[in-house]
Amino acid sequence: MTDRPTHRDERPSVGGSDPPNRTAGRQPPPPTRPAPPPASAVLDAAHEGDIEGAFGRIPVGDVGARATWRQRLMTLAAIVGPGIIVMVGDNDAGGVSTYAQAGQNYHTSLLWTLLLLIPVLVVNQEMVVRLGAVTGVGHARLINERFGRGWGAFSVGDLFVLNFLTIVTEFIGIALGADYFGVSRDIAVPVAAVALVAITASGSFARWERAMFVFIAVSVLQAPMLFLSRPHWRTVTRDFVVPGISGGFHSAAVLLIIAIVGTTVAPWQLFFQQSNIIDKRITPRFMNYERADTVIGAVVVVLGAAALMVTANYGASGTSAFGHFTSALGVARLLGHRGSGLGTIFAIVLMDASIIGASAVTLSTSYAFGDVFGIHHSLHRTFREARSFYLSYTTMVVLAAGIVLIPGAPLGLITTSVQALAGLLLPSASVFLLLLCNDREVLGPWVNPTWLNVLAALIIGVLLVLSGTLMATTLFPRVNVALISEILAGSLAVGGAAAFVVVRAVAHPAERQVTPTATPEQKLSWRMPPLALLRPVRWSPGTRLGMLSLRAYLVLSAVLLVVKAIQLGSGH
Known about the structure:
Blueprint: E1 51-53, E2 56-58, H1 69-79, H2 82-90, H3 93-106, H4 111-135, H5 139-147, H6 149-180, H7 185-200, H8 205-218, H9 222-228, H10 233-241, H11 251-264, H12 267-280, H13 287-316, H14 328-338, H15 342-373, H16 387-404, H17 411-436, H18 440-443, H19 450-475, H20 481-506, H21 520-525, H22 541-569
Antiparallel strand pairs: 1-2
């Protein structure tokens, strides 16, 4: 690999010029050379250098304090991107379809799920922000190196399969949106595929990010769409804060709630944002700005999801279509009958969301591909410099587009099932994320505080209860869903407490050592050493047993999800 440029903020400072020679005839000592910079874990040299964003540039040596509001805003403008893109990309074709299904089938009674997902989004993605800025290594590579190739193959294998299916749903969204305007999918899908490749393979990170912000600007159409749907604000406010399900708690509703979780907090987001932060060259010195970028994105994604749910409810309420969701195209046509251009706006939002999602999801897969195989994987590189990286991106786009062009494919069912699958696999991805963020070799002084571990464990527990409820209702269709959920929640709480006690009892003392106190400046300059220099991870017997159990459980859950999808597709 070529030599990498060095961050100036990581170079030891060198004092001023040597003092003047006070002794006549004596030769001054040779100038001392600065110590070499610490070795970097970064795999691609293009991941080091100036921060180049859509709205500004920060030179690698710019480490000064931002004393004024103007300086802080200019810095935020240069940093903003990975957080907002990953969140808006989350409201992709699958998201639009899932939120629209919730509105058409359950009025606005599921809005409360969106409010609860804000802390899930922020907690998960904040951990990813730290991993990206501190390590300089992508999520796939960290899992592979820290937990072994077997666990890496499981995790990355899940990602590749799920991401590819998700990309298929993005082209489904493009096809459905084009159909609303009378444009054949045989034209719209290939044109979109070519545009995606052209935007991504431009050889400029800043150009790609500017293109993403153009599409994000189009997504602002969700705001007028919301107001044109004449929402009952009192009802909307109540449904945001009071949990409930129109028509009662049953297996189809559980499947949809899992789909909402899966489309709002998808595993690909973890891989994408971490790698995109690395590709943008964001270091710990600018981590707080990237955290702000992430929080802004989380608020935007929830507001957009709420607008879609409210709008779909408006289109279906009082018609025979209520409770009978077919596809996002069906929602667009229902809205078209309402007038005010709502159908047109919805179709544009659908196609726009599909393009953003396709770009982000495909890119997360290509980033992971580059991480695992150790090849150049940066948007700063041209096609010639990173041929394998861009070819992997192009191949996935072409294959996914080709599947959508197959006549008679059950597009609506594919979309909902993929989002539910994402929800089922999220606990596994979240557990790996939690383990990495408690690895002192990886994050040093940036490891998780105790309160964050507790919150993250609680989130994982809730996700497991949801997937467990889906399993129970699939195996036993007539079971009391509410009772099963209560039993699972209680069992999970007891089991989690017992597992915590056992793990703490058998864990090696070195794993419980306290991280030495670091000064603020030391934290800002701390970066993970090369992976080969890190001490290996040692799992306790309790942790290993828990991980194996989780893997077996999630495999079984995925199989049962396929069964549930087939049942729904056949009308049972």
